[in-house]
């Protein structure tokens, strides 16, 4: 059907063409935001554009500091040959999209940490996730048969995290392609820790954080063991919880510390 066909964007040097190019570049950046680090071929397929055209837009975005090329991260055993080159959004590229917090929020947390210590930041991190927990419960009531990890991804997306679920060895990967608090979490990782604790609580299983945008990765990635994928709902939850051990795992050797 004509309505379902993808059309290739016409790229010209006219003024109208430049306007079209700007729109297309925004689509390319949006596709990277939603799917995480992607190759030019993957973006071309996803957007219905020519690979050459996508590379040209990526060159411009790279020149402007909005995306950066990197080797595709491989979890587990790596095959022969060099990993494919992918493009990821930089901090400046993410800033083109919505950010929920700014310098004022960091200054406020600095004051909170000064007066209440790290525990105060942790309590704040858990409190700000209350809306996510309520949304997760509502999705379960609306669709009891939905997989818990997918319900959590839907709740995260509604909160601005652009989340998805992907199959993985011995379970699933919960991927957050955007983080509204990335700049704040870079200084205060307690926010990421509180998030990981809540994921374990909601899914009723010990999850493992593999990567975070705040730590310089392209996507926040959390491994969800198969037991959660097979369960029919979250474990019974209490209203108050003590902080659990940090479950994040640095998967990249030589990564710069925050």
Number of strands: 6
**Global Rg:** 20 Å
- The overall pLDDT, averaged over residues, is 78
Beta-strand content bin:
5-15%
Parts with pLDDT < 50 across at least 5 consecutive residues: 1-19, 231-258
Q: Would you list the SSEs in sequence order as H and E?
A: HHHEEHHHHEEHHEEH
Side-by-side strand order of the widest sheet: 3-4-6-5
Shape: globular
Structural class: alpha+beta
Which quaternary structure do these chains form? single chain
State the distance separating the first and last CA atoms. Answer: 50 Å
Number of helices: 10
What does this structure look like?
The structure is a single chain. The protein is of the alpha+beta class and 258 residues long. Helices cover 47% and strands 12% of the residues. It contains 10 helices and 6 strands, in the order H-H-H-E-E-H-H-H-H-E-E-H-H-E-E-H. Strands 3-4-6-5 form a 4-stranded antiparallel beta sheet. A hairpin with an 8-residue loop joins strand 5 and strand 6. Helix 2 crosses helix 3. The longest helix is centred in the middle third of the chain and has 26 residues. It is globular and about 50 Å long. The relative contact order is 0.11.
